[in-house]
Amino acid sequence: GRCLAVFTSGGDAQGMNPAVRAVVRMGIYLGCKVYFIHEGYQGMVAGGNLIRQATWASVSGILDDGGTIIGSARCLEFRERPGRLRAAKNLIDHEINNIVCIGGDGSLTGANLFRKEWEGLVKELSEKGEITKENAEKFNYLNIVGLVGSIDNDFCGTDMTIGADSALHRIMEAIDCITTTASSHQRCFVMEVMGRHCGYLALVTALGSDADWVFMPESPPEPDWEDKLCEKLKITRENGQRLNIIVIAEGAIDKEGNPITSEYIKDLITKRLHYDTRITILGHVQRGGTPSGFDRILGTRMGTEAVLALMEATPTSQPVVIALSGNQTVRVPLMLCTLAVAQAMKEKNFILAQELRGRSFKR
Ligand code: ATP
Fold it and tell me: Is 304 in the pocket of ligand 1 (CB under 6 A)?
């Protein structure tokens, strides 16, 4: 049978394990030899015992685990060609030329580059005698399928990324805990949630928590926002509201592109309104805990589809990302997803970048 490998890369997200499990089991079900590549690209570059065969049992009982049991990492060596050359050798040594990459924007961009270089890498390895001529011929193409694991929901081409729903659950639990104490003491809370370039979590958090205000990168506030914010808070208090919640994405900016920070908002409210104002930065709590039911199913569906896409791939087919579109699992070209957003971000066109990233919160 054919060999395929699965790895997780970049920041972890709840739901990666269900995806890993589905890849392994669907692969075995279809008669493939399935490998884990531990610690993301680091394991691919290092090889050795970081590339190990998976069994049906090795993914048992992981559906409800957060994070990723095969480890994730950031890997500098893979960004350079010599690192990718070693990665190619390690894969070919295991007769692997089908891989499922579960990661964010960066990981999938790296995968795409790797695939484009593959032929050249194989040629070089063969010329140097590091792989046999026979293997060089047999594995002269690389099939890649991407799955987007990211709590930020920041990927173009899919309605939801694996992990975003669980992160929202974690945030909701945290806000529910904050509101009781905020109300008791008539406090104002500035809640900072993750999302460097993507305000999805901030926006849905605000909608789901009865917040008074939200700051997010795609929608910088009007220049007079400070007056407007204070006026709004004052009115709510006058109307008997005992607490205020302000949600801010970590990547919030003003119209000039300067960061708006939690500290700045807190100082503003304290100075102008003299409210007891506190900051809660949720941080890594958002990535933790068990995957939601939605993410377990999403990871399972996407992992299954990834293996099917790999099995149907030909040497000339374009690499795809498995995406969710209107609750359908679909395959979209990897290049369309990563390049368009990268271009928009380079031009600091955050709103366009967001539109490209998905239809997730159009309405
Ligand atoms: P997150 O959403 O958590 O940021 P990510 O996948 O975008 O996830 P990155 O740190 O950007 O996380 O990328 C993970 C790894 O992918 C990097 O450490 C590197 O090994 C590889 N990688 C990223 N970009 C490239 C690239 N342009 N070329 C080669 N490899 C890359």
Answer: no
